[in-house]
Design goal:
The structure is a homodimer of 332-residue chains.
Chain A (H helix, E strand, L loop, with lengths): L6 H11 L8 E2 L2 H7 L2 E6 L9 H14 L6 E5 L3 H12 L3 E7 L4 H9 L3 E5 L2 H12 L4 E3 L6 H17 L5 E5 L4 H13 L4 E7 L4 H8 L23 H7 L4 E5 L1 H15 L5 H4 L1 H9 L7 E6 L6 H7 L14
Parallel strand pairs in A: 2-10, 3-4, 3-6, 4-5, 7-8, 7-10, 8-9
Antiparallel strand pairs in A: 1-2
Helix pairs in contact in A: 1-3, 1-7, 3-4, 3-7, 4-5, 7-8, 8-10
Chain lengths: 332, 332
């Protein structure tokens, strides 16, 4: 029923956004590769505009609207995180006003960042009100709602991160990315299937926010009742979307990650790569380690470091306990 | 009396080490430039081998020894920090054994990192014993001591960071670097005077460890009695050296930095640049801000991010209080 998103859609997205976004570097750690005995490449989207891959999807959607003579007077969105900043940044880039609806308990630094990209920030009592208000605002004439993941052009934009990577890296055995609403994973899957059919595509979400895993198990979209308690704030979405669900079903594997393991890899990735890695981005490493421990030959894998935005509360949670004493290995 | 280090020495160092070290990127933050109204370029030595510029001086010294038929059987050094890792790494690179003397209270992650580069690590009761033991070991036949800063080839190696930067960046009005023992600043000064005479070269050290500032004021080397209490662990050296003192005297300005200001910029640089910035590396930004606030026209400046190695105790000190609520500006 829904029109499938194709590799051409993602190539078109790349052509649309290339001059606005950063071609982020691919990083690696000799030490980590030595310890694990495999080759791991990290697409560092923490160096993307607004500090996260979300800039890709937002930029593509706005540019696509303009290309199709649908330039709105106002863009709205509902997010407290990286998508909010991305929509604010992308709208501003094309001279369009934006209003971002956020829960009132959003961290000051995130609200400030969104406002600094020129958005009007509107604070609501809770996440449910945020969603209601956004839907209401989106009904106004000339207003366009850019949702965080369940939109073909958002997914196509997010797919460009892996597209860029596979243009540079050959012979990748598996691609790992975190799962919030599933936009990044959906885009990555479409690219991988077309460009590198042998690459497995594997997702990871917090065990404490495992609506995607539950949805895959029950073969219908499951929704969390309330904001889940996980340090991976980019994966606190209450449910995946109808569109992303179709792609998530095609993943080769999916892992549910414990909080302590997320923190372990957040410490280690920032220590080894010397970049700011948000917990959501470190999560796939737990899946990487589990997946690699089952492999019989040396593998080359790609991990998308989705972003590098961390508020001080999260920073303190990350560094509460010292995991750097315990060197990564494949032995359990 | 001492033979001056020349730009040719630094060019030779670059030729010697280029194939072993990383050509680190130059980063910038659009937001920061917008807020301060100037252009700031950051040479990101956190992406250097061992995570700090120290790899340059150690690598150059070992390569220079070999080039001059003085290849030692054993390299020794006294350090608890980045220089220890650098000497361990550089010796190992050329198949030479190394012994690193460290105070026994060194953080486990730092000792572990040094050992992981193949060094023999020896723990002493305190910093003074560390120095005595190193001096004693260095008297053995076939043993060579690579000191952390007071050595022409160490200084020449450190100078290559700014040499690389000035090969890429034109029209730089000022260069800022942190001061521990003064090796990085000395090398930077020699390069700047030769390649970009209009560039001011400016140092910064913690007010709590201001032996260099005191030495400059009294025109003789002053030594701290005990390890100073500063979060900038790369600047805890008790005194500068005779060699570096001669170059530090030629600096255009020198700033003593308060602890809270160091932490403020550690938070902001890692937030804006998305890289791991150790407190020592953030320190020059306080000097940058003060220097810029006196300028009447738009300036282009270079800041050397000296390294990105941070242990968990320091990490917790950095993120205790939230400074990200307070956006950088030149207004006081």
């Amino acid at each position: 029923m829904m029109k499938a998103i194709t590799i051409q859609d993602i190539q078109n997205a790349k052509n649309r956004i290339d001059k606005y976004i950063n071609q982020t570097p691919v990083l690696y750690s000799h030490k980590l590769n030595e310890w694990l005995g495999h080759e791991i490449f990290f697409k560092a989207e923490c160096f993307q505009k607004v500090g996260a891959f979300k800039a890709r999807g937002a930029c593509n959607t706005v540019a696509w609207l303009i290309e199709n003579n649908m330039k709105p007077d106002l863009v709205v969105s509902n997010s407290s995180g990286n998508h909010a900043q991305a929509v604010a940044w992308a709208s501003n880039l094309f001279g369009i006003l934006s209003s971002i609806y956020m829960p009132k308990n959003v961290s000051k630094v995130k609200a400030q960042a969104t406002a600094s990209y020129g958005a009007n920030t509107i604070f609501c009592t809770d996440r449910i009100t945020v969603d209601e208000q956004t839907e209401l605002a989106a009904k106004d004439k000339g207003t366009y709602w850019i949702p965080p993941f369940n939109h073909p052009q958002v997914i196509a934009g997010q797919g460009t991160a892996v597209l860029e990577s596979l243009n540079k890296l050959e012979d990748i055995d598996a691609i790992f990315a975190p799962c919030g609403g599933g936009g990044l994973l959906s885009g990555s899957l479409i690219v991988a299937r077309a460009m590198s059919p042998k690459s497995e595509v594997i997702g990871a979400e917090p065990k404490n926010a495992n609506d995607a895993a539950e949805s895959l198990r029950k073969n219908s979209i499951q929704t969390l009742n309330s904001t889940p308690d996980t340090i991976a704030d980019g994966a606190r979405t209450l449910s995946i979307g109808e569109l992303t669900f179709e792609y998530l079903k095609q993943l080769d594997d999916f892992f549910e990650i414990e909080e302590e393991d997320i923190i372990y890899w957040t410490q280690w990735l920032s220590h080894l790569l010397k970049v700011r890695v948000e917990p959501t981005s470190a999560m796939p490493m737990v899946a990487v380690r589990k997946w690699l421990s089952k492999q019989k030959s040396k593998k080359r894998i790609l991990v998308v470091i989705s972003g590098g935005n961390i508020d001080i509360t999260t920073m303190n949670k990350i560094w509460r306990k010292d995991f750097l004493n315990n060197i990564p290995s494949l032995a359990s």
